[in-house]
Amino acid sequence: MKQRRFHLLLIAVAFGCAVGGYLASGRPASVLAQQQVQNQLLQDLTPQQQADGRLKQLQQKIRQSPQDSVLWAELGEYYLYTEDFKHALQAYQQALVLRGDHAELYAALATVLYYQAGQQLTPQVESYIAKALQMDKDEVSALMLLAADAFMQADYARAIGLWQRLLDSNSSRVNRQQLIEAINMAKLLARQQ
Fold first, then answer.
1. Boundaries of each Cytochrome c-type biogenesis protein H TPR domain copy (predicted)?
2. pLDDT tens for residues 64-105?
């Protein structure tokens, strides 16, 4: 569980850095059903979530700007971090509807489905990762997810290769120190096999 939270935190941090990097398109929602999804996401909360200040702040911002895809992505990130995968998926899907095709959002959807499936690379997860990497071959969250999965499967060489690829990309979304530590840990574990 502790390792799972670490991986969730690592992915959430990487994705959180990315969320602020893209601009919302501002496209108006064209279907009444989208409004119903929005309302449901804002009302269907557990008591613990209702007490969370960050969640309340996000809810207020979304009520003021319901067409802001960045806010919906932040809400998805919040739900992912709290392991509320159903609502995380809905929030990211709403962000995708508002923003349109976007590599980071496909990577976020893959991440939610990966953890919802008990850390399994299902066909749907792989499909979203493929879409993300097709749009951006160095999409940080998608590569981080693949590396974390490789690490969990004890495929240390693949994990190291993916992490090194992220380092070589020189992306501002990458925490270089954490990646270097992860690479060193994977190298150590690979020698023990």
1. 36-168
2. 999 999 999 999 999 999 999 999 999 999 999 999 999 999
**How many structural domains is the chain composed of?**
1
Residue 80 sits in a domain whose CATH number is 1.25.40.10
Confidence of residue 53 (pLDDT cuts 50, 70, 90): confident
Q: Domain of residue 78: give its range.
A: 2-191
CB 15 within 8 A of CB 102: no
The residue to which tokens 């919040």 are assigned: 78
Burial class (CB in 10 A: 0-12, 13-18, 19+), 115: buried
Rounded to 5°, angle at Cα 149 from 109 and 176 = 90
